[in-house]
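Complex record, four chains
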Amino acid sequence: MRSSLAERQETEEAGAEAPATPSVRQQAVLDAVLALMVEGGDQLTMDAVARRASCSKETLYKWYGDRDGLLTATVRWQASRVHAGREAVQALDGTSLREHLQDFAVSWLTVITSRTSVALNRIAVAHAGSRKSNLGGIVLANGRFAIGERVKPVLEAGRAAGLLAFADSEAAFRTFFGLVGRDIQIRLLLGEALDLDADEIQRDAGRAVDQFLALYGQANT
Amino acid sequence: MRSSLAERQETEEAGAEAPATPSVRQQAVLDAVLALMVEGGDQLTMDAVARRASCSKETLYKWYGDRDGLLTATVRWQASRVHAGREAVQALDGTSLREHLQDFAVSWLTVITSRTSVALNRIAVAHAGSRKSNLGGIVLANGRFAIGERVKPVLEAGRAAGLLAFADSEAAFRTFFGLVGRDIQIRLLLGEALDLDADEIQRDAGRAVDQFLALYGQANT
DNA sequence: TATCGAGCGTACCGTACGGTACGGTACTAG
DNA sequence: CTAGTACCGTACCGTACGGTACGCTCGATA
């Protein structure tokens, strides 16, 4: 079982911050961390991780250096899964613009309401309080900012097509972000139960898109 | 409460959740906790609190039972300071409605961007992960929900005056909340610097109110 | 004055947890 | 075959922190 990984593709010396995709075994470890995060934030000890992943602590320290390294790798691992590929934006009409926005809203709501995301964000927020190794920065970069970078081209394409009017795409996106997320994320982070099913998310997303278009849309949508 | 001490001077009795206003000395202790929270979340040990407040740990345990009790008391103490009294809503016209909303937006933004609020929310979020004593619930009740209960009557008065149109005041409030807060709180919690000065808050609030009125206002504003 | 209780400072205890060391095992290379 | 590598399991160490115990001072009351 353990020896069957002669794979170890390339040294991880790649680049300052790029941690090379983890091996299958390492992924299993990181998934164990994720699982522990989800089931109560205080179980997240190195012992517990080693037990859950059936590996030795020594291996954990060898692979990740220290606890923070393990957490960082876990955050990156989860981020790498969430990233959907960014498709190129082609010509837009009113309908496809609405669909794009709806998709973004749905996927964002789905992410932030997932138990994994809530647990991960809790860890990152807690960590942000006691500086050292900014998990918070990583989460922001792969969450809020990543989706921003994907939405803004769509907004700009919408503007180019005469469907939207705004001066600053960042500001427009932030409004969109607010209309979609509202109080949901903070309520979840603070422990409220509040689980939305797929239908509710769909409706919520639709409402947010409607409102956004009401604010920024040009008549012909 | 657990304390079977006869001490409790003026005692405010079974207010379900009212913990009797702390004595001056106790307030000093809670302020010390707040100060420690603000300067880095990991310094928050009982030793550090005792040292900072120049009191003995034994006193802390006598007054608050355990660490959670101390944290809970601190959260309540901070909440008791933030609460502005809720003024009654009288007749509204377009101008006064706008002013009311602007005030709410400004005060909310001011609160959530304060270092104290950020630190407190971080603690509460972290705590929400490992159940036991829901600081999260208290923070939510005194933050998001408290302001909701203060805004909704204003919205309803606005509707009664024909200035606003909506079916569900809760839903309308949540949109308002989203337009005001957008991504600010999560970015702060995750550690971004991002400090807004008074002018920026004023402008942000104004933009949010404009957008809200654009969505829910009846022509005559 | 003597007594009492609130509370400060410090020393102490138990334990949980991050991190290290080491022996044993399965597999590979030569 | 031997030597080497990668890893598991477990035992171990040091320390930080929650919680407790105790002696002391100070002010109030009689």
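Note: The interface with chain A takes residues 40-42, 119, 121-131, 134, 136-137, 139-140, 144, 174-175, 177-183, 185-187, 189-192, 211, 214-215 of chain B (CB under 8 Å).
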